Amino acid sequence: MNEKKRILTGIRPTGKLHLGHYFGAVCNWVKLQNEYHSFFEIADVQGLTDNFSNPEKIRINVREVTIDLLSLGINPEISTIFIQSTIPEIAELTVFYSNLVTMSRLYRNPTVKTEIKQKKELFGNSGESVTYGFVGYPVSQAADITAFEGACVPVGEDQLPLIEQTREIVHKFNSIYGDTLMMPEPVLSNNPRIKGLDGNEKMGKSLGNAIYLSDSKEEIEKKIMGAVTDPNKIKKDDPANPEVCMVYYYHQLLNNQNLETVCTECKQGKRGCVACKKELIQVMMEFLKPIKEKRHYYESHPEEVDQILKDGNKKARAISKQVMEKVKKNMQIDYFEQEQ
Ligand code: TRP
Ligand code: SF4
Asked: Which residues are CB-neighbours of 3 under 8 A, at least 6 positions away?
């Protein structure tokens, strides 16, 4: 494969990354970076749509998320990590695209719809929490993707309506102004969402059931010791069903070499839950060891992280400038030669 396609995906810097991010998305990105030119956007402007009154949260997490991505195996030698707000073309494109989308279409977007519903549950029905910026963030996301001619967008299922929205904008833009923008395709990660240790279908910050890459051993011990097991197992030597046990689910996820033994011993009542959890703590710490080592390295070399971001911003900007030239030309708003 000579001409590698370009991947563009983004992540909101609203908190440190946890195992749900890794198994649900980032492990896929790590693999894809060898097959595609990969661009990972730290979507700080999008993060601000929900956190505009809490800018320090976004600022801190831009670096935290970058460090998490690097620790999980995103390789800055072959991939580009950059910050959304350093690319002014994204904001410009957002304005241009805003004419190509109706309000009712935005309100019908299933992702936006669900999020509005959640906001109303949180803030009451006044609608005051629903800002223009929030309803419009799919337009800004279309700008994220098209500013870098992202051909493929690796995302989870919940993001599909946003990619569909982008495709509609691209279609409309190209049919009005001539063939300009690249039509993106979603790449669905085949990893399902991972469950929480509490048995919840989803691991998430707001659910309080997440294991962070930056968690200490003590925090991990506490979380695993509190995990949900087979409720029918009362005594240590009761036989149990590993299929309904979250500890077993995580043994599977982390590829414990000892998996068959865990399973048979559990079924035969030869394994106590406390010992089983302790084994999981061991396996989890082993899994996190190289990640934590890298994390520690980058935490103590902040100038290196900054340099990676600066280089990434520059590489990304070079592309978005070219795209903007085409866009302005075709929209007939390129008034002078060498405008910039
Ligand atoms: N909306 C995405 C999320 O919440 C993050 C994101 C921002 C993104 N820009 C993007 C994803 C561009 C794919 C492409 O997870
Ligand atoms: Fe779960 Fe292990 Fe207890 Fe079986 S022995 S119920 S797998 S914690």
From this structure: none
Question: Sheet holding 152-155: strands in order across?
Answer: 79-83, 37-42, 6-11, 152-155, 185-188
Per-residue pLDDT at 46: 97
**Residue whose structure tokens are 């009005």:** 176
The pLDDT mean for the chain works out to 93
pLDDT band at 175 (very low <50, low <70, confident <90, very high): very high
CA-based end-to-end distance of the chain: 35
Give the pLDDT confidence score for residue 125 in this predicted structure: 67
**Of the ranges 108-122, 149-163, 173-187, 256-270, which is most confident?**
173-187
Ligand nearest to the CA of 111: 1
Q: What angle separates helix 302-330 from helix 273-299, to the nearest 10 degrees? A: 80
| CA of residue 289 to ligand 2 center, whole Å | 24
Smallest CA-to-CA distance from 200 within 218, 175, 226 is with: 226
Spell out a b/e string for 86-117, using b for 16 or more CB atoms within 10 Å of the CB, else e: bbebbebbbebbbebbeeeebeebebbeebbe
Q: What is the pLDDT of residues 42-74, one digit of tens each?
A: 999 999 999 999 999 999 999 999 999 999 999
Q: How far is the CA of 183 from the centre of ligand 1 (A)?
A: 16
- Measure the CA–CA gap between 115 and 98, rounded to whole angstroms: 20
Question: Is residue 245 a contact partner of residue 228, using CB atoms and an 8 Å limit?
Answer: yes
Whether ligand 1 lies within 6 angstroms of the CB of 146 is answered as no
